[in-house]
Amino acid sequence: MTAGRPLEGFRILDFCWIGAGALVTKTLAELGASVYRVESRTHPDNLRLSPPFRPGTEGIEASGYFASRNSSKRSVALNMQTAEGRALARRLAEGVDMVSSNFRPGIMERWGMGYAQLRETNPALISLTMPMQGAEGPHASYIGFGSTIAALSGLVALSGVPGRAPVGTGTHFPDHVPNPGHALVAVLAAIRHRRRTGEGQQIELSQLESTVNVLGPAFVEAGLGRQPEPVGNRVPGVAPHGAYVCRDGAWIVVSCRRDAHWASLVDALGFAAPARFAVAAARASEEGAVDALVAAAVARHDRGAAIALLTRAGVPHAPVNSSRDIVEEKVLWERGFWRDVEHPVIGRIPINRSPFRLIDGPEAQVTRPPLLGEDTAEVLAAELGLDAAEIARLVDEKVLY
């Protein structure tokens, strides 16, 4: 086992807020990076004011949403509306390895924090920016969130049930899957490049372009002159493939991609089916009839019994779990995916680690999310040499706020 985590000693000045950027720096922190999360009480991160809140708690320190996206970081409260606050940020940027942000284009530059400005004093700096539609182009100034990115990318148009209004994915898919995932790949590539050459790197990730990447087959189909439509739970050529309700009102998903799966399903649930359905092409051509047979068979069993039967038979299936089911899932606790942390306002809460492990390396370190500005004095003393009197003055003048 190696002595330290891969990114130990790597320091990040993090201006990212909301979801996508926050997940990037959360993962880098678990890999050992020191992440200094720049915040302000005058313009707090929207997530700090967003539910869920534990009953009896509410306010800027109590958001479970913020907690889940900002574990393992340190909070530095700088009032970037003041000249001295911006000057302190620039001084911090001189000594770190990376600066990250996901504001609209131009904001970091107005603060004197753009890549071209910062590299003059820190030529090895890695810069990550995550504008919604890129830093250039006719829509560069547009703002949005995960739900608007999902709509722009074509994702919403393909979501839902045929013949009904699109249901979309909320903010969850763009903010939590493609955008942080693609950004992490780019950052790790830039770190490798820097270690080999000593050169910094400017990374611009368009969140729209990142999300478009996940819809590859639909765009191939469109390129062939066909308009892809929403298909609900169905997959072309695969039947059954859907969600079915059990006798107790719970749901399971069943997918038979092979004829052997279908034979095992029929045998496990004990229902009669036409002989022609033994072949995938016939099932796909009469998908509605296949769905009706499977739905009736599943409805005769409670979920637990259905899952036991299908598990023994080797049929691909899964329960339709709720969020609470996932938090209570013993396997995820045993594997260390969930970590209990104690928060001074929220109390004990489960925080997830990143969904990968370095088998021959140290475990990811997951610590509680910081209170706003909790680490300001310590970070400024360590990084800039500010003493207690100077920090007290800056607090009084609301530069540290």
Structural summary, described in words:
By secondary structure, the chain is an alpha/beta fold. It has two domains: 11-214 and 335-396, 3-Layer(aba) Sandwich (Rossmann fold), CATH 3.40.50.10540; 241-323, formyl-coa transferase, domain 3 (2-Layer Sandwich), CATH 3.30.1540. Helix content is 38%, strand content 13%. The chain has 18 helices and eleven strands. It has helices at 20-30, 64-69, 83-95, 107-110, 115-118, 146-153, 172-176, 178-197, 207-212, 216-223, 259-269, 280-285, 287-298, 303-313, 323-327, 330-334, 376-384, 388-396; strands at 11-14, 34-39, 74-77, 98-101, 126-129, 201-204, 241-245, 251-255, 317-319, 338-343, 347-352. The strands form three sheets. A six-stranded parallel sheet has the order 3-2-1-4-5-6, with helices on both faces. Helix 1 packs across helix 8 and helix 11 packs across helix 14. Belongs to the CoA-transferase III family. Keywords: Transferase. It comes from Protaetiibacter mangrovi.
CATH T-level topology of the largest domain:
Rossmann fold
The shape, in one word, is elongated
Please state how the strands of the largest beta sheet are arranged side by side: 3-2-1-4-5-6
How much helix, percentage-wise, in residues?
Answer: 25-40%
CATH superfamily of the largest domain: Crotonobetainyl-coa:carnitine coa-transferase, domain 1
Work out the radius of gyration: 25 Å
What are the low-pLDDT stretches, counting only 5+ consecutive residues below 50?
none
Count the DSSP helices.
18
Number of β-strand runs: 11
- State the separation between the terminal residues, measured CA to CA: 42 Å
